[in-house]
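Researcher: Last one for today. Full complex below.
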Amino acid sequence: MRPKSNLGLGMLVPKAIRAYSQCGAWGNPCPISGGRAEINERSFAMAKATIGLLSRRKMPGTSRVIKEIFRYKTVYLLMLPALACLLVFSYIPMAGVVMAFNDYKLGKGFSAMFTSQWVGLANFRKLFSGMYFGRIFGNTVIINMMKLAFGFPAPILFAILLNEIKGNRFKKIVQTISYLPNFLSTVVVYGLVLSMLSPTYGLVNAVMQKMGMESIHFIAQPQYFRWILVILDIWRYTGYTAIIYLAAITSIDTGMYEAAAIDGASRLKRIWYITLPSISEIILLMLIINIGYILSGDFETTFLLYSPPVYPVGDIIDTYVYREGIINFQYSYTTAVGLFKSAVGLVMILGVNKIAKKFNQTGIW
Amino acid sequence: MMIKRILPLLLCLVFLFSLLAGCGQQTVPAASTSPSAQATAEAVTTDASTPAPVQGEPVSLVLCKPIWGDKTADDPSVKLIQAEILKKLNIDLTIVGQQNPADQEEKPKLMLASGEQLDMFNMGDWTKYMKNDTIIPLNDLLDQYGKDIVANAHPDSFRLRTSKDGKIWAIPYEQFPVSVCVLMRQDWLDELGLKVPTTIAEYETVIQAFKEKKNDQGFVPLWAGVTETAFLGSFVKTADKNWLDTDGKIKPPFMAAGYKDYLAKMQEWLKKGYLHKELATMQYQQAVDTFNAGGSGVMMNWLNSIEGNEASLKAKQPDGKLVGVPPLKGTEKGMYSSDLPYGWGTVITKSCKNPEAAMKLMNYTSGTDEGYLLTVFGVEGTQWEWVDKEKGIAKELGDPKSELYLFAGGETSLTTGFLTKFFSKYAVSQKDKDFMGWLNDPTKVNTAFPVDFGVIYDVEQMASKDKFAGLDTFITEAKWNVILGTKPADSWDATVQEWMDKGGTGWIDDYTAQYNAAKK
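Model: Here's the assembly. Have a good evening.
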């Protein structure tokens, strides 16, 4: 099956595009599937341009670049909003990191961001010497590692299972239902959690009480709190994230499955030897992206669900910063925390990318 | 072919323009309401206090204030008042409701941080806004446009809102000295043949009966720490406020003798179901809904009016009636502490483009009879009418389910600040007047101002200020550990010692130093 456009995905996974283009996805006759795809030179050229952009080894000279840009101006034009977005929301605000090193006062206006009293590393010292720095740092990492350990494989597994479903209608229904939770607002999710787990009117406790068990106030118990966050994360994002893996799986040459089936490979073996290796690059990419967010918790969900009894296990950097920084006008302090998180995220991304390249000969750049 | 070329181009341009549009600043908050700005200023003359109508384009002002109960800033009852303000003052007032009693200033703080239009807001500690340069001094504006407020406010009110350099930073939000009270279902008491409890033992008997006969789920928390406000005075002489130890040092409530007994009782009550099972996590609206749905027969609330709370209850439980419970006698006499009128008030932001109009609005709503009646009771003849004008007794029109019903006197009121003069002059019913009179009669309801009442602490100048957030987290967690039964109440002395070791000694020294300096 040929997707209508793979450009977005292709920009993320150049190798997937290359593999795809070789087997007919971009219009080349595919030797295995019978070459039913019609020749579409424009699509093929666009993919080539994208691959060319992403591959440093093939970087042409300056005049060639200009020529290429002119030639594929529509592609570059399409990139423009995304680039503008990146510039406006990610690069220009970077100038604000200077606030981490001064004592910014809100009412002094925008210019005070650069003219406030210079305090050097005082805000960082305050963060690292904070009574609960170790705990909030630990909680953030532990919760994110738990999400990574259980939440990261979930969409991969789900996408593989979904791909194995033969009935198209059933598959679509399952897919739609599974990615709906992603579109629910966090407040609605909070309401749903309460209606499930409340000790007075929650479904889970009602069942437990019917079975003669004592009701439990789950969201106020430290031993359950992190698991609630992890389960919620899996429930909310598995279906949606699975779309990325499903798209990658769709791009796998069906001929390989057919050949493997003729050779007597079981379904499990086909998944193990064909599906997983074929999507390994996108798995790696997603892993590296996720690792980059290791210090960024799900603020909204945690903030709505946590309470003082679960601070020891649930208070994360973001909630602590909101409580102690934003609400108390300590913007320089919160900027310092943000900078620290970004620095750790960058180190993690670089580290994992390097490890991935060492073991797998591939990384995201 | 041409279409294929033009379409992506058009798409790109649309994306780019929407992006640029998205980057533009939103001037009026989305979750707010404003009357139609189409109306023109009309001359409406009622009495001498009515301001002269202003012609021309309406001035747009955004006010952030607590709006509790079932009302929101979008209610037709609220919009009606906004329309009147537009007519009378030519001010297009937008109300942004703040509904988090745990931190009533969360919304304005976030609005200030995000750069949204905010001209005035209610707050409890003007010092931090002054230090962050987010509000403006009001002396000149008061001289020119705020004469009615100055004439009618309590003399102490402005002193408590004035910095050392003589600048006034807020319009007072005066209230009666006691403005909190435990409320109980009078109809349940009557049905079960019980009397309003006056001691902890009687209270336990009542709640046990409520549990058995009315399926009561226990005391519901409307804000964090409400159980301290409600019951600590039964175990600690100085209730939930700072106190002066014999060593001459200011100490926090949890260090007072009797605090451990209070925690032990709360632990026992939670176990027995006298406190709601979800006490630790329940949020304001859930607590209100639980109470109004008949899930609980007892709660505590801030009060400007018992009628407002009762009306809210009656909307769901038509036979519901409320009664105030006096401070319960325990190991101590029982006390509802008071620190009002302290810092609460309304401020004008530095970003306000028309501070003169803001002050005119404040003067009208806070300083005049007409403004008070309009913003607290609503539009006369539509939302309320006089029962006894001489005594200042009014009655609301319609029933609590009516769209225009305002729960007058409750926190829905749109006034920018309360002055006791008007507050004690008018009531929405005789019952309300009697209730507030009872609550503030020291022979019936024991109360006291804290020892450091009126001292304006400057935390920024405190040597150990960086440890305060951690100390607060530590003690909050420790309290919950005991209440939830994770730790025994007997461990409290060790907890207090740990708090001292972690930096609490610095807290005590810093607060004591500023207290002593202020007393001099």
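The first strand of chain B starts at residue 59 and ends at 66. Chain B touches chain A through 49 residues (CB under 8 Å).
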